[in-house]
Design a protein that fits this description.
The chain has 294 residues and is an all-alpha fold. The protein is 74% helix and 0% strand.
């Protein structure tokens, strides 16, 4: 126990050191050149206007609005983080919503698509895992459909459903089905024969055998598939929202890029990473809770 705590402490210190080095490197790369002036006199009116659209002031000190590369500094990002987290749920119209609302839209789509995928994939995975005949019959379809990028389904979804939000949910459903289906089938097929034979000897009903013998034994593998599916779903929803627009964290990234706000784009990237990490930790905890040692 002490060894594990010592290892965790050293790992935490190393992570903090790496983060500090990255922030220092970032600050050095974006620091303004001391005493330098932007050459406004040598620029045309169009170039000056374009520079201002990028958040630069050609006539001011180079460090007054951004670093020498135009990339935001850590301090600028920090102030933007405080600004967004101070009022995360404001709603000033279609293109001006708080980061909390944008995340809620994305998580809602992911949660609904993921739940629908679980309702289909887990029972079907049980059937495939318990029946070699069904496995052989469905395997060609799974192998053909599994490698298709979820975003490739987006045009068909938009054409048939004609609703961007529901189309996003459909894409999440498609990308979440396959890892859950395959892992469920693998976990069910891998249940020890001795346990099944004992259940057969005791004349356990098929429904009771499924819930009290097969499900507990296959649960770690099923949750592994669900964990992989959630990771893929969170990746896909960002790209899907960039394509269809409207609301969501993906649309927020695209909209801020169109507004040439790199600081907001970087903030959104960090938020996506943190939320993805928390979702993964949630499934890791659930997986650990149902994993047992022989």
């Amino acid at each position: 126990m002490n060894g594990a705590r010592s290892l965790n402490l050293r790992a935490g210190l190393l992570s903090a050191l790496i983060l500090a080095l990255l922030l220092i490197a970032w600050q050095l790369a974006t620091r303004p050149a001391a005493g330098s002036k932007a050459p406004a006199a040598a620029m045309t009116a169009e170039q000056i206007e374009y520079a201002r659209l990028l958040g630069k002031d050609p006539g001011a000190e180079a460090g007054s609005t951004a670093g020498r590369s135009g990339f935001p500094t850590p301090a600028q990002l920090g102030s933007k983080v405080v600004e967004h987290l101070s009022h995360p749920f404001y709603d000033n119209g279609p293109n001006d919503k708080g980061i909390g609302l944008q995340l809620a839209y994305s998580l809602g789509r992911v949660g609904l698509g993921f739940a629908l995928a679980a309702l289909v994939a887990i029972p079907l995975g049980f059937l495939i895992g318990m029946s070699p005949l069904v496995y052989r019959a469905l395997d060609p379809f799974i192998q053909v459909l599994k490698p298709i990028s979820p975003l490739a389904w987006m045009p068909l979804a938009l054409y048939t459903i004609r609703d961007s939000s529901i189309s996003g949910i459909f894409v999440i459903f498609i990308c979440s089905v396959w890892p859950m289906l395959i892992n469920t089938a693998f976990g069910v097929a891998g249940v020890r024969r001795e346990w099944l034979n004992v259940a057969k000897t005791l004349e356990v009903s098929p429904l009771r055998k499924a819930f009290e013998v097969i499900l507990p034994a296959a649960a770690p593998t099923i949750l592994t598939g669900m964990r992989i599916s959630m990771g893929i779903a969170w990746l896909v929803i960002v790209a899907a929202e960039m394509l269809v627009g409207g609301t969501g964290i993906g649309y927020f990234v695209w909209n801020e890029w169109n507004n040439l706000s790199l600081t907001n784009v970087i903030f959104a990237i960090l938020v996506i990473g943190v939320v993805g990490m928390l979702l993964d930790l949630l499934f890791a905890r659930a997986q650990k809770a149902v994993t047992y040692v022989d």
